[in-house]
Automatic annotation (TrEMBL):
<dbReference type="InterPro" id="IPR047657">
    <property type="entry name" value="PmbA"/>
</dbReference>
<dbReference type="InterPro" id="IPR045570">
    <property type="entry name" value="Metalloprtase-TldD/E_cen_dom"/>
</dbReference>
<feature type="domain" description="Metalloprotease TldD/E C-terminal">
    <location>
        <begin position="231"/>
        <end position="447"/>
    </location>
</feature>
<dbReference type="Pfam" id="PF19290">
    <property type="entry name" value="PmbA_TldD_2nd"/>
</dbReference>
<dbReference type="Pfam" id="PF19289">
    <property type="entry name" value="PmbA_TldD_3rd"/>
</dbReference>
<protein>
    <submittedName>
        <fullName>TldD/PmbA family protein</fullName>
    </submittedName>
</protein>
<comment type="similarity">
    <text>Belongs to the peptidase U62 family.</text>
</comment>
<dbReference type="InterPro" id="IPR045569">
    <property type="entry name" value="Metalloprtase-TldD/E_C"/>
</dbReference>
<dbReference type="InterPro" id="IPR002510">
    <property type="entry name" value="Metalloprtase-TldD/E_N"/>
</dbReference>
<dbReference type="InterPro" id="IPR036059">
    <property type="entry name" value="TldD/PmbA_sf"/>
</dbReference>
<dbReference type="InterPro" id="IPR035068">
    <property type="entry name" value="TldD/PmbA_N"/>
</dbReference>
<dbReference type="Pfam" id="PF01523">
    <property type="entry name" value="PmbA_TldD_1st"/>
</dbReference>
<feature type="domain" description="Metalloprotease TldD/E central">
    <location>
        <begin position="120"/>
        <end position="224"/>
    </location>
</feature>
<feature type="domain" description="Metalloprotease TldD/E N-terminal">
    <location>
        <begin position="26"/>
        <end position="90"/>
    </location>
</feature>
Length: 448
């Protein structure tokens, strides 16, 4: 796979070729990735997958007209053709007053912080196979597990580079390691499935294989013999596996692109106390070894820590250059790139800070409620905040988890849900969005 230096040189070369082809300005992204995954099932090797990919994309500007192309031919002729094609397309594009590059004086400058995203440890296929087998063996050893959907172990590495005609040319690399298992409990019509998966930049930061497997098996067994829920208004507790989706909906609503289109339920609410004062949401793009750490954003702006929710209020929009221009604010360093085209908007390493109560104490205050471990479907309206998702989990009775429940729907409105939110103290930072156990009071349940 290409190195960071090679990726950076290719991106800078593509920008140079675009300017030679007649562009007034240009930016290029180059990415490369390689991964290997070994899967086992019932103690036997099931598959080995190896993939490699390299891609380049260029966006060119002729006045306020812009166009993008991409490809994977890195020869001089291939890059030149890519640049010339983009310039030809831009000449016929409509003008966009918000199509522009970050000015030279605003670009991020090194030295950048060492984010420790690259693990030099290599994992041979045989080592991956052994880890997958150990994970599955632990899962199958759980009493009540009757079958396996399989377990897998994998690793990968990637590199991302960005160059612009304003003088930016930087790249960084990252590695990844993961373990997963999916187990089946029960027989026939009683069968239930559940899983566990963990990812990390460094292999040493993954939990023990046996722990991952046991969790997958225990979750599947716990779901046996679910009953239906009665309809009504209940206190709902979200397991951290699914609670992060609530923060994900908020981040989507904070997007400057959504605000510019007036398609977010946060319009005219930035000054409102939407959350309880104790809720605090923070972003840390420079956290070492974290899954979404990055030294600069997809437009060459510096990244840095930010408080997203404080004192009950959302602190502002998350903006790339185009949406910032539309909203009349400064860009916030949240631009992200795909293989080609204009940048989107995304956060990096978001944590909802832990509260004072343990999960047991948070649940212990509930006489009759539900603990949600799975959410199904996409029933969320970004414009209004109306929320309706199919779910499964466990009944809460007299402050304790009770029988498994399934085939019910939880509904509410995100603004009201955020206002009734409380957090436990069990935050673990192992995802892109990390939350502790969360409780929302007063949600509507539609049972079967």
């Amino acid at each position: 796979m290409i190195t960071s230096e090679i990726a950076k040189d290719r991106a800078a070369r593509l920008v140079e070729l675009a300017l030679r082809a007649g562009a007034d300005a240009a930016e290029a992204v180059v990415s490369g990735s390689a991964s290997e995954t070994v899967g086992v099932r019932l103690g036997q090797l099931e598959d080995i997958e190896r993939s490699e990919d390299e891609h380049a994309g260029v966006r060119v500007f002729i006045g306020r007209r812009s166009a993008s192309t991409g490809g994977s031919d890195f020869s001089t002729a291939g890059l030149a053709e890519m640049a010339e094609r983009a310039v030809a397309m831009a000449r016929h594009a409509t003008e966009d007053p918000y199509a522009m590059l970050v000015p030279r004086e605003q670009l991020a400058r090194g030295p950048f912080p060492d984010l420790d995203l690259v693990d030099p440890t290599e994992s041979a296929p045989e080592a991956l196979r052994e880890r997958a087998l150990e994970t599955e063996d632990a899962a199958r050893a759980v009493s009540g597990v009757t079958n396996s959907n399989g377990a897998s172990a994998g690793c990968g590495n990637s590199v991302s580079a960005l160059a612009t005609s304003e003088g930016f040319a930087e790249a960084y690399g990252a590695t990844s390691h993961f373990l997963s298992a999916s187990m089946i409990a029960g027989e026939g019509g009683r069968m239930q499935r559940d899983y566990e998966s963990k990812s990390a930049r460094h292999r040493g930061d993954l939990p023990d294989c046996a722990a991952v497997g046991r969790t997958a098996g225990e979750r599947a067994v716990a779901r046996l013999d679910p009953v239906s829920m009665a309809s009504g208004t209940f206190q709902v507790v979200f397991d951290p596996r699914v609670g992060g989706s609530l923060v994900g909906h908020l981040i989507g609503a904070m997007s400057g692109m959504s605000a510019a289109r007036r398609s977010t339920f946060l319009l005219d609410r930035l000054d409102d106390a939407i959350f309880p004062a104790a809720i605090r949401l923070v972003e840390e793009p420079h956290r070492p070894r974290a899954l979404r750490s990055r030294p600069f954003d997809g437009e060459g702006l510096a990244t840095g820590p930010r408080v997203l929710v404080e004192g009950g209020r959302v602190t502002g929009w998350l903006a790339n250059l185009a949406s910032a221009s539309q909203l009349g604010i400064a860009p916030t360093g949240h631009a992200v790139r795909g293989g080609m085209g204009a940048p989107g908007i995304a956060t990096a390493n978001v944590d909802l800070q832990p509260g004072a109560l343990s999960p047991a104490q948070l649940i212990g205050e509930i006489a009759d409620g539900v603990y949600v471990t799975e959410l199904i479907g996409q029933g969320v309206k970004g414009v209004t905040g109306d929320y309706s998702r199919a779910a499964a989990g466990f009944r809460i009775r007299d402050g304790e988890l009770a029988e498994a429940v399934a085939e019910f729907t939880i509904a509410g409105n995100l603004v009201a849900m955020f206002g009734a939110l409380s957090a436990a103290n069990d935050l673990e930072r192992d995802r892109a969005i990390n939350v502790p156990t969360l409780r929302v009071d007063g949600m509507t349940i539609a049972g079967g």
